[in-house]
Design brief:
By secondary structure, the chain is of the alpha/beta class. The chain folds into three domains: 3-88 and 102-144 and 195-337, TIM Barrel (Alpha-Beta Barrel); 340-457, Rossmann fold; 458-522, no CATH class. It is 34% helix and 21% strand. Strands 1, 2, 3, 4, 7, 8, 9, 10, 11 and 12 form a ten-stranded mixed beta sheet that branches. It has a five-stranded parallel beta sheet with strand order 14-13-15-16-17. α2 packs parallel to α12 and α11 runs parallel beside α12 (318-337). The longest helix is centred in the middle third of the chain and has 23 residues, at 182-204.
Length: 522
């Protein structure tokens, strides 16, 4: 497992005798140097060279650097530092939204911007860096459900020329709002995805290794066709699990569940190989050390291979590193136990792809119920699913229609049935409820119907908010509550009591159709 942290080159030099030894004690083995912020370098060549030499002398891997390539809305790097210049350079174009308004601090991906970014990567390669990572601003839309892109006059003209259309900004905007022209929307989404793909191709020509930090739930509607990027660059690395940086967000059950679903979806799209977490604190000090450690537990249990700690340009303080150092033996054990293939006999529909404008938030209930369930999109349906949960008004035509016959049972709720009347004949169970809600009665309703389908998998049968990961011949069980939690694990004839402290994680070994006792991982 690699343990990563990112720093500005000036901070590497200034903190070489204080922070860097602390990072070594924690186990950090690679420090990524920040290169540029929206087209502006953060240091001269001499500073980069000096900072790289310090990392080498202290035993860190110094080969990696990262850039804010497109730009984030507002100061999303460090609100404590009002001196940061995050405006778009004068020779770049702002991205324009579907209403014709500039998306401030966010650039379009166009020739000038591409030339400046490739030149920056070329410069860093000459300074001895070999691995580049684009920050999660590299996309063509901000976070949300809507299909996005750049709607400036030049992009509209280029789009129409490439696809042979004559659509206006208003016509494309209406199609996005009404979701009534699949041909147009698929072409528009593909066009904006191609911008990210062309930029990554250009950057890959300048450096040995490239990677992308992926926005939480980012997909084609945001310009991110992850399976295609993986196919074009088989050795590309991806950082997943972005967002939920504060106690206000991650401290909720909804935040933890949504983050877990997003990590799993992205790992399904790009694979676990060369995957990194985004274990970020933002704004400064907004996430407690306890939740910071818990995020690391969650992302490793979900199958991410490496940890990546970030805090924008803010320096994560010693109290956080002390907490992480104390937790590191347990984190290494979680990573080792999570190496085997994760098993998900239950699949949960979470849309098809970004062209349909469906909600990016999958139902929380099955994950809160402690089921071995994977949030799945129709564009990438993995093998191994036995039971399909169709909860919510997702469209089950296209690839989903072809895949329904692969499941031995289908459970749908009223929302799914209303959106897909064909499920009346295909579903094994039609629930008389909407299970996008997460009440205890809905949870027990789902469990009762699953129990009638002769389950042959480990599951939490009593209690809730215990996330379950079935890995090889054992399960990991993560308490999502900031207080002690109890439940019962059922596997075959075994009923195993589970007692975990606040935000703690445990493991239970499996043998045939029986289970051992729960061991808490310290």
């Amino acid at each position: 497992m690699e343990i990563n942290y990112s720093l500005m080159p000036q901070d590497i030099i200034a903190l070489q005798d204080t922070l860097l030894p602390t990072l070594r004690e924690v186990g950090v083995n690679r420090i990524w140097t920040t290169d540029s912020l929206t087209g502006r370098t953060v240091a001269d060549d001499a500073t980069f060279s000096a900072s790289k030499a310090i990392l080498d002398q202290q035993g860190f891997d110094s080969s990696g650097f990262g850039s804010v390539v497109v730009g984030h809305p507002g100061n999303s790097l460090n609100p404590d530092d009002p001196t940061l210049d995050l405006t778009v350079p004068a020779n770049w174009r702002y991205r324009v939204d579907r209403h014709g308004k500039p998306v401030y601090f966010c650039a379009d991906i166009e020739p000038n911007m591409m030339a400046d970014n490739t030149a920056a990567v070329r410069r860093m390669r000459k300074l001895g860096y070999t691995t580049f990572s684009a920050d999660d601003d590299l996309r063509m839309g901000n976070w949300g459900d809507a299909i996005q892109g750049c709607f400036c006059d030049k992009c509209l003209a280029d789009f129409n020329q490439r696809v042979g259309f004559t659509y206006s900004r208003r016509e494309i905007a209406q199609a996005i709002e009404q979701l009534d022209d699949r041909t147009l929307l698929e072409a528009w989404v593909a066009y904006n995805c191609s911008k990210v793909e062309r930029l990554m191709d250009a950057l890959a020509d300048e450096i040995d290794h490239i990677g992308l930090m992926v926005m939480h739930m980012g997909d084609e509607r945001h310009g991110l066709n992850l399976p295609k990027l993986r196919a074009q660059h088989p050795d590309m690395f991806f950082r997943v699990g972005e967002m939920y940086f504060s106690d206000a967000d991650y401290g909720t059950i909804a935040g933890k569940i949504d983050l877990l679903a997003g990590i799993s979806q992205h790992l399904t799209a790009v694979g676990r190989r060369r995957s990194y977490s985004e274990t970020t604190i933002f704004p400064p000090r907004a996430l407690s050390p306890e939740h910071w450690v818990h995020k690391a537990r969650l992302t490793l249990a979900a199958g991410t291979e490496n940890l990546f700690f970030m805090g924008g340009t803010w320096i994560i303080e010693d109290r956080y590193w002390h907490a992480m150092a104390a937790a590191m033996p347990g984190l290494r054990r979680i990573e080792a136990l999570s190496k085997p293939k994760h098993r998900y006999p239950i699949h949960m529909v979470s849309g098809t792809d970004g062209t349909r404008g469906e909600t990016i938030h999958p139902p929380a209930l099955p994950l809160r119920a402690g089921l071995p369930v994977l949030s799945v999109r129709g564009s990438v349906i993995p093998k191994g699913g036995e039971i399909l949960l169709a909860l919510g008004s997702y469209d089950l035509t296209g690839p989903w229609e072809a895949a329904l016959g692969n499941y031995r049972a289908i459970i749908c709720d009223q929302d799914a049935l209303a959106a897909n009347p064909q499920l009346a004949e295909r579903a094994t169970v039609v629930l008389n409820a909407s299970l996008r809600e997460s009440g205890t009665s809905h949870l027990e309703l789902l469990r009762s119907h699953l129990a009638r389908l002769e389950p042959n998998y480990p599951r939490i049968s009593a209690g809730q908010d215990l996330a379950l990961f079935w890995v090889g011949e054992r399960v990991l069980i993560l308490n999502l509550l900031p207080e002690p939690n109890r439940g019962v694990l059922t596997y075959g004839a075994s009923r195993v009591p589970i007692e975990l402290g606040a935000l703690a994680i445990g493991t239970v070994s499996l043998d045939g159709q029986s289970a051992g006792s729960c061991e808490v991982i310290q």
